[in-house]
Amino acid sequence: MAGGAWKVAYADFVTAMMAFFLLLWILNMVPPETKAGLAAYFSGERNFDSSSTSPVSNNPFIHNTDKIDARDFKMTEVEKSHYAIAQKLRQMLMADAVPQSSSGISADDVGVQLHINSDVMFRAGAVELLPEGEKILQSVLAILLDYNLYLVVRGHADPQEARPPYASCWELSGARAAAMVHYLADKGIKPTRMRGVAYGDTRPLKPGIDEKSRAANRRVEFFFHRPEVMSYSIVY
């Protein structure tokens, strides 16, 4: 018995080495962007969102619009209204030819969210709306006129695009959110139905190690939700 103990130890060693080389192989296959995101996650440096839905990303009822059509269960009245809003937003994006990579729609049991890349709506480092941005706000306005909904406008910015007179991405994202809320208020939407929130670069979608991922992080989000959940922290 004692003479064969080394065989057990050797087998454990071989198993450990196989697991180690398998780990190395998997790491070699992972894209650098994903590695950076994992490293940041475990180091606690940044809080990356797992999807475009930001504060509601942990809600199990989230649906992307490409999946909403396929739902075969009976929808509640709330779900039906969310479905109708999501469909309107999708039609708007298609009509205005907003690239799929620059936009997205999601829904949960609280509301519906539209996110748009800031580059579609604003010039770099500025808060003046581009013509495309004004078209998007016209569609947002139409939904607020048609439905008794409240709106949270969230601004997200990339630190590299902040420039005077905006000292940081906080000021830039806040100024953009305020500009959009102001636009809608001028068109007749009561200010009490809207909120503008500045997140700066605190809720990135990607690690931001290259221009493609930084472009995904600089975005604006329109979260349409029911009036009775106005006090929920989840809408912010």
Structural features, described:
By secondary structure, the protein is α+β, with helices and mostly antiparallel strands. The chain has one domain: OmpA-like domain (60s Ribosomal Protein L30, Chain: A, 2-Layer Sandwich), CATH 3.30.1330. The protein has 8 helices and 6 strands; from the N terminus they run H-H-E-H-H-E-E-H-H-E-H-E-H-E. It has a 6-stranded mixed β-sheet with strand order 1-2-3-6-4-5. Helix 4 packs antiparallel against helix 6. The longest helix has 25 residues. It is elongated. It starts with a helix and ends in an 11-residue tail after the last strand. The relative contact order is 0.14.
Question: Which key phrases capture this entry?
Answer:
single chain, alpha+beta, 60s Ribosomal Protein L30, Chain: A, 6-stranded mixed sheet
The CATH superfamily appears as OmpA-like domain
The helix-and-strand class reads: alpha+beta
Largest sheet: 6 strands, mixed
Count of individual helical segments: 8
Please specify the SSE layout and strand pairing.
Blueprint: H1 5-29, H2 32-43, E1 63-64, H3 65-68, H4 77-95, E2 103-107, E3 111-117, H5 118-121, H6 131-146, E4 150-156, H7 169-186, E5 194-200, H8 211-217, E6 219-225
Parallel strand pairs: 4-5
Antiparallel strand pairs: 1-2, 2-3, 3-6, 4-6
Outline:
With 236 residues, the protein is an alpha+beta fold. The chain has 8 helices and 6 strands.
